[in-house]
Amino acid sequence: MSADQPAERAPAPLWRPLLAEWLGSAFLAAIVVGSGIAAQQLSPGNIGLDLLENAAATAAGLYAIILMFGPVSGAHFNPVVSFVDAAFGGLRWRNAAAYLPAQVTGCITGAIAANVTYGRAAVSISTHHRVTGGHLLSEIIATLGLLLVIFALTRTHRGASAAAAVGAYIGAAYFFTSSASASFANPAITIGRTLSDTFAGIAPASAPAYIAAQMLGGIAAVAAIKTLYPNLTPANASEILVPHRLESSEPH
After folding, report:
1. 149 within some domain
2. How many domains are there within the chain?
3. Is 50 exceeded by the pLDDT of residue 54?
4. Model pLDDT, residue 60
5. Residue 5 falls within a domain, yes or no?
6. Alpha carbon distance 157, 176 (integer Å)
7. Between 86 and which of 64, 96, 204, 208 could a Cys-Cys bridge form, CB atoms 3.0 to 4.6 Å apart?
8. Domain that holds residue 184
9. What pLDDT is recorded for position 196?
């Protein structure tokens, strides 16, 4: 290798991506829950404005944390993204399984931090029931759309746009999905949001149905991606959401 050529990036030991997923998930939950609390305080009684403030903060924050942690772990922050990535050979199944607890505990930590930041009890179980047919269909559609955005970008070598595109999509999905759904599209953040009885919270009784809908969205996304992008390779999938390298990340 000549002095003018950049050195190839070495694979990261697995603990580093796991730490990145935990931190990124914690920031994500803190942004979602914290901005929801702030919105309630800034514009009490105005649900439309509350939703706009929550969506704008989430979209901008998601853009930033993808840029922060993407080069280390891919910035999944979402078990559905990780397992769909594994289905396409971009991530080992055992690594996807390792991402899961990091993402869930990260979201729990972020929700608790947001509660404490605003002087509330560290854990306040949400009483915000959200389950109707419309809400669950919204979660399927939101999750499907999120995955299509992500995989379309990587298949067409536009991964550099992932942070902006994912942030924009989630911000928009707050509004085009059912008003009380708010486009969770993520089982980890769904679990974290059960611990905050605030604007962004969800009652624990509603969470299993939401998670099931998100999983259905993931399954639908696999079928849609295979149809739309039949030449998607494991090498393409390994760059979800942004290019990164994991230790022993070759597919099995």
Report:
1. yes
2. 1
3. yes
4. 97
5. no
6. 27
7. 96
8. 15-237
9. 93
